[in-house]
Amino acid sequence: MMGKNILLGHGSGGKLSHDLIGSLFVKYFDNPVLKAQTDSALLELESSSVAFTTDSYVVDPIFFPGGNIGKLAICGTVNDLAVSGAKPLYISSAFIIEEGFPLEDLERIVAAMADEAKKAGVLIVTGDTKVVNKGQCDKIFINSSGIGVLETKFKHISTGEKIVAGDRIIINGTIADHGMAIMASRNFVNFRTEINSDCAPLNHMIRQILDAGCEIKFMRDATRGGIATVLCELAENKNLGISINELSVKVNEPVRGMCELLGFDPFYVANEGKVIMVVAEKDAAKAVEILKKNEYGKDASIIGEITGSHPGKTVLVTEIGGKRIIDMLAGEQLPRIC
Amino acid sequence: MQYIDEYRDRELTELLVKKISEITTSEIRLMEVCGGHTWAIQKFGIPSLLPSNIRLLSGPGCPVCVTSRKYIDQAVAYSRLSDVIITTYGDLIRVPGSSSTLNEETGKGADVRIVYSVLDALKIAKDNPSKKIVFLGIGFETTAPASAAGVLNAVKEGINNFYLFSSHKLMPPALNALIDEGVKIHGYIAPGHVSTITGSKIYEEIPPKYGIGCVVAGFEPVDILQSIYMLVKQVHEKDFRVEIQYKRVVSREGNLKAQAVLNEVFSLRDDWWRGLGVLKESGMCVSEKYSIYDAEKMIPVEVEETREDKGCICGEILKGIKTPKECKLFGKICTPANPVGACMVSSEGACSAHYKFNR
Q1: ipTM value of the model?
Q2: Judging by DSSP bridges, how do beta strands B28-34 and A323-326 pair with one another?
Q3: Does one domain contain both A203 and A300?
Q4: Full-prediction pTM beyond 0.90?
Q5: Are residues A190 and A223 in the same domain?
Q6: Residue A262: closest C-alpha in chain B
Q7: Are residues A81 and A199 in the same domain?
Q8: CATH, residue A233
Q9: What is the rounded distance in angstroms from the CA atom of residue A48 to the CA atom of residue B36?
Q10: Is A335's Cβ below 8 Å from some Cβ in B?
C-alpha cells in the first residue's frame, strides 16, 4: 500500500484515491456490485417495499473494547433496518478522514466493516472518501446508509400500531455495555475494567423470531439514550402505559459498578446490540426461548408489559418494590457531584 | 455489588416499612437535607412505599442548588477570559447565570472541562503552563477537603497556575437557619457524607435546642428507611438526640485529617444561600496564607449585574416550605431541558428529582 498516512490527495479523486479504493475498499468489501465501480450501485430487489436508513458515526475513541467505528457503522445500519422488520441487503459507507490518519488504522476499520457485513449477510455496494485538513475533523467519521426489503405483514412493526395492553416487553440481554465501554476507554476516567461494547448485528436473530411466527408488535434498537428513551418515546407517542420491573433488567456487574461510581443511570446509557421488542403475551415466552439460543440473546428476558393504566407514562417498579416514573433525559447525563 | 446489594434488599425494605407503620399513625415530617438523599429517595421510589403519615421534605443540601447566581455569573466571566480553563464537576455547567451558562459559553469557545477530581484539574494545570486553571469548588464539608488538598498539592508540586474559586459551604448554619425561619419538621435525615468528614458531633446542639431528631443516614434504600424508622421512634418517644445509622462510615469525631486540611486552607466567611440569604460564617474562602491560589483575589474580572428570575420558588423549596409541584413554573416553563432555577438543574435538586421520577 501507498505510504503510511492518509494525505489530502487520497480524497482528491485522482490517482491516490483510485489506488486507495482498489487496494482497500474493493479488496475488503469484495462484491460484484462494488467491483463494477459504476457511479451508482445498480441493485435488484425482490420487493417494491423498501426500508431505507442513514446514520453518521463519530464515536470517540474510534477503537474501543468490543469494536471500532467501522463495526459500529455496519451494525448500527443493519440494526436500524432489522428492527423495522426489514431484511437488510445493501449498505453504503462514506468516510470523512482527517489528513495524516494512519492507513494502518483505516485498514483495521475497513476490515472490521467487511467482517461485520459478512456476518450480517449484507453487501457494501457504494461509498465515498473525503479527506479534510488536519484539525477539521476528529480522525475519522463514517456515514452509512442501508436499504432492506420489507414484507407487507411486517409493516406495522416500526409504527407499533398493533400494540395492546397485556403485550410483553422483551430485551435480548444486559444493558449499558456499549456506553460504559466507551466511557471506560476515554482517557479522562482512569479505570481498568473488563467492559466490552455489545455492538453486534441483530438481523439474523430478529429474523429467527419473525420466522418462528411470534407476533411481534414493535421493535426498536436501544442506542443513544438507552432503553429509557425507547420506552418513554413509545409510551408518549402511542399514549400507552408501560410498566417495567427493574429486577428483570440485567446489567453486567462491572457496568453496574461503573455506573454507580460515576452517577450514571444504566437505563439511559447507550447500547449497540440491544433490541426492545413488544410481543403478544401468548408468544412472549417462546420469543425469549428463541432469543436465548442466539449468541446475541443469551440473557434475554421479559422486562415489563403494556398496561391499561397511566397512559403516556413509563412506570418502574424499583428493585426494592417502590414505584417511580422513567422520564426522557434532558441533555447529556452528567456526573453527580457527591 | 458488595456493600450495595445488601442495602437494597427487598425483604429488609418491606420489614422496615412495616415497622415504621406500626409505631404511629400521626403525621411526621422529616427533612432529608442532602441532595444525594433526595435523589436516592426518588430513584428507589421510597415515597410510594411509606405510609401516608410520613412526609419527606427536601432540604438545602444540593450544592448546585444553593450556589448563588452571582457565583455562576463570575464563573461565566472567568470562562470568557482567553487565558482561563475552567475545571468543574459536571452538574454546574448547566446552571443558569443571569444571562448565560458555562455550557453556552463552551459553544462560544470557552474552555470548560468536566473533571471527576481536583487532581485532574492539577494535571490540566501542569499540561497547560501558559493558562490559568480555575477550579470551581462547590459543595459542603464533603467536597471541600478535596479542594483544599488541591491547593496543598499545588504548593507541594510548585504549580502556580491553579486557582480555586470557592463557594464551599458549611452544613450546620443552614440546619439551624431553617428551624429559625419557622420550618416545621420533626427531624433531620442528616447528610451521611458530610458527617463522614465532620463527624456526627456537629449536629449535637440541634436536638436540645429545637426539640427535633437527627439521624445521620447512608444513601441506600435500607439505610434511608432505617433512618426514617429511627427518627419516627425518636419522635414517638419524644427522645430527641443525634444517632448514627450510617455507622459503617460515620463516627462521632469524623475524619480528623480532613478537618485539619480544611482548617489549614480555608477561613470562614458570611455566605449567601439560595432561599436562606446570608448566613453568618457559613462559607469557606481560601485563607490569606494561600491567597495566591485564590481565583477571587488573583484573577480580576468584570462580572455582570446579577438578576434573579421572577416566579421561581427554589428558595421556598429549599426550605421545605413548598414542594416542587406547588411552583407554577414546574414542568411548564421550568424543565430539566430548560431549567429556570438551580433546583431543576442538578440531578440531586428537589425539582429535578421530582420531575424525573415522580411527575
Answers
A1: 0.81
A2: unpaired
A3: yes
A4: no
A5: yes
A6: B116
A7: no
A8: 3.90.650.10
A9: 55
A10: yes
